[in-house]
Specification:
The chain is an alpha/beta fold and 282 residues long. The protein is built from nine helices and ten strands. Helix 1 (13-28) packs across helix 2 (59-93) and helix 5 (173-184) runs parallel beside helix 6.
Length: 282
């Protein structure tokens, strides 16, 4: 069975990540896995000190440094385990009844790639431990978005259970697949959906958006839509604020303006300025 997997670290984001992941797992009726990765760059498995000690240094000093590194790694693993246990307790308080814990030592993006076959939805914080007090994104988000081929929910620090969503749509084949995924997912059952196309309101654009709306309505979604000219990131942000939208949904579409959201600086703008969750459909 596929799981909702939540990335837990030592930042303040861990609490919101747990909340959104628990909400998602309950809506999807799927198990929840809380996942912690001990960064191999900060905590290498084996430290080679030979290049740092000059000739004539005592061998016992090398041994002592290696022992200190081993102890440091052990403490970091224990700390990560406590983070996972605390998150599990909170998830269970929210009503989760099938919670799993996993911990690895290595690179986060590479570790997630190995779990892709069992991943239904990935939940990550918009900011990591090193960026939680700034507008900068966590340094691994872009790598994860590029490499994990599953839906990714990037969440802010403050939790609010979503009650409505906005779908960024561009009319491409991949875009229509995203509409199908959204229509059939239990994650958004009963929620109003606002479909937005950024661009000129041509006859083809209207027909494309109306077809998407019709498909969503077939699955009994309450749907509204609009086409608005403008720069993609700022236009989406303006509409979301005007309509008090709780979650933005968009995809990595080929040969479209929205593709830039995942390949260039616009991605960082959207995510770094986000105050609500952003669901990235793949």
């Amino acid at each position: 069975m596929k799981h909702v997997i939540a990335c837990i670290d030592e930042s303040r984001m861990a609490h919101a990540v747990t909340q959104y992941a628990t909400w998602s797992a309950q809506r999807l009726q799927t198990p929840l896995t809380l996942f912690h990765v001990l960064d191999e760059l900060r905590y290498p498995v084996n430290s080679d000190m030979t290049g740092n000690i000059g000739l004539g240094s005592r061998e016992s000093l090398l041994e002592e440094l290696a022992e200190l590194d081993e102890r440091r790694n052990k403490l970091a693993l224990e700390h990560g385990h406590h983070l996972l246990e605390a998150a599990k307790s909170y998830a269970e308080e929210m009503g989760a009844d099938d919670v799993h814990l996993r911990q690895r030592h290595g690179d986060l993006a590479e570790s997630l790639a190995t779990l892709e076959d069992e991943l239904r939805l990935l939940v990550i914080g918009l900011h990591g431990a090193e960026t939680c007090d700034s507008d900068r994104l966590g340094h691994q988000i872009e790598t994860i978005v590029r490499n994990v081929r599953r839906p990714i929910l990037a969440v802010p620090e403050n939790y609010k259970a979503p009650t409505n969503v906005m779908l960024a749509f561009d009319g491409s084949d991949v875009s229509r697949k995203g509409v199908k995924m959204l229509a059939e997912s239990p994650l958004f059952v009963g929620m109003p959906i606002h479909v937005v196309m950024v661009g000129a309101a041509t006859a083809d654009a209207n027909a494309s958006v109306e077809a998407a709306v019709s498909h969503l309505q077939e699955f009994r979604h309450q749907v509204s839509y609009e086409i608005r000219a403008g720069e993609v990131e700022s236009t989406l942000r303006d509409i979301q604020q005007e309509r008090n939208i709780d979650m933005l949904i968009m995809g990595a579409y080929s040969h479209s303006k929205l593709r830039q959201l995942f390949m260039g600086s616009t991605t960082s703008k959207v995510l770094s300025r986000a105050t609500t969750p952003v669901l990235l459909l793949r």
